[in-house]
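Crash report, auto-generated. Payload:
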Amino acid sequence: MSIHVFSTRIQVPDTSPLQAHFLSPSAPIPGILFIHGWGGDQRFDLKRAQTLAGLGCLCLTFDLTGHHEHEAERDQVTRAQNLRDACLAYDKLISHPLVDPQSIAVVGHSYGAYLATLLSQLRDIRWLSLLAPALYQDDEWLKPKDQLNRTLLATYRQQAHTKEDNQALLAGSLFKGDVLLLEAEHDPYIPKQTILNYRNAFTEAKSMTHRIIYEADHALTQKTAQYNYSTLLYRWAQEMITGARTGLLLT
Amino acid sequence: MSIHVFSTRIQVPDTSPLQAHFLSPSAPIPGILFIHGWGGDQRFDLKRAQTLAGLGCLCLTFDLTGHHEHEAERDQVTRAQNLRDACLAYDKLISHPLVDPQSIAVVGHSYGAYLATLLSQLRDIRWLSLLAPALYQDDEWLKPKDQLNRTLLATYRQQAHTKEDNQALLAGSLFKGDVLLLEAEHDPYIPKQTILNYRNAFTEAKSMTHRIIYEADHALTQKTAQYNYSTLLYRWAQEMITGARTGLLLT
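Recovered output after restart:
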C-alpha cells in the first residue's frame, strides 16, 4: 500500500521540457468492514462508511442474518450463524479488486464488536474498532442468541473474565493490530467491567485507544453521541489507516 | 466528485443472501498543482504532495523554466515564461484521466504563489494555497525576472497596493474559491503589508484562512517551520478538499 510516483515531462514550445512528477493514490487501498449490533442494521454505519470512503478506503456494510428484511427469523439465529456472516462479508470485501487484503479494518458495535473480535481469530485484520462491545459466555453457542438468559448475561458482564474462560477475549489476546475501544458513558447493557475485560485482553495489540463517549447510551440515541463517535472513529482512522498510507500523522 | 455507493448481496449457504453496500472513493479525484519559489525546485513539495496523494488527491510537482537542471538559464527567464509554465503544468494535471477538472487546488510558495494567483485568472481553480506570496509591479513583465531592481521591489512590497494597480491582486479580487494565506513570521522579503495586500484583494473568495507560521523565515529553513507549514496545509486540505468530497468536516 503506497503512493504511486512517476516522473514525467511538460513540453514547452521553444525551450527545454519541464521536469515533473505525478503523485497518485495507488490501489490497492485499505478495506473497512462494518458490523452492526443486535437488532440493528447496516443503515447505522452508512454515513460513516461514506466518510471513510472519502478518505480513500473501500467500505462494506451489510445486514446480519435475522435482521432488517429478515427480522422475522431473528428469534432463531445463532451466534455461529452471524459469525459465519461476518466471515463471508470479510471474504466479499477482500475479493474486491481495489482492496489490499493486508490492510483490513473491522468496525463493530455491541454484538457486532463481539463478532468482530471473534473474526480477528479467523481472518487477517489489521485494525479493530469496538464500540460498546458486548460479551457472552462461550456455552450455548448454537442456541438462538435471542434465547440466552438475560439475567445470567447481565451478571456475566459484571464479572472479570479473561482469555482463559472466554473465546472472544482469547481472540483479543492474540490480536496484534491496533485497537480502538469506545465506551458509552451511560450504557445499561455494557458495564465498565466488560470494557475492562476487553481492554485487558488485548495484551499483544500494537496500540490501544480507549475513549469514553460522554452522555451516550448503548445505541447512541442522541445526535451528539453519534457525532462524537464519528469524530473519534475518523481521527483514529486518520492516524492508523490513512496514516499507514502516507507515513505521517495528520493531527 | 463523490463516493460511489452500490448495493450487493453476500451469498450464505442454506439461507437468504445478506444485503450489503460497497462504498468506494470514486474517480475523478481532486488534483493539486504545486509551484515552487524563485531559485527553488519541485523537491521542496514532494513530501507534501505524497501526503496529499495519500488523502486521495492526484498531485503534480514540476520545475519552472530556469530552475534545477536548467539553472544556467535563470538570469534570462521572465515572469511571462514562468506563468506559461504554470499554465502548461495545469493543463498537464487536468489531462490526467483520474483528475476532476472542476476540483483543482494550486499550492504556491513565494514567487510560485504569485504565479498561482495570476494563474487563477487564466484557469479554473477551486482552492488556492499561498505561502509567503511575493508581489511584483506589473511593468517590466517581459524583462528577465532576475534583473528586476531589488531596491525598488523591496519598497513596492512595503506599500499598499490594490487590484487597481496590480495584476496579481486583480486576479485575487476575481477569485471565487477558498484561500489559504500563510505568512512566515520572520520573512525579510515579504513584509506584512504584502500579505495584507493579498488578503484584502480576495474580496470574492468563499473562505479566507490566514495563519502565521511562527519562527519561520521566508524559505522555511528550519525543520519546525516546514512541519508547521505541512500541518496547516494538511488541515486546510482536509477541511476544504477531502471535506468537499465527503460532505463532512473532519476536525
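Post-recovery validation: The helical segments of chain B are 46-54, 79-94, 111-122, 150-158, 167-174, 192-201, 223-246.
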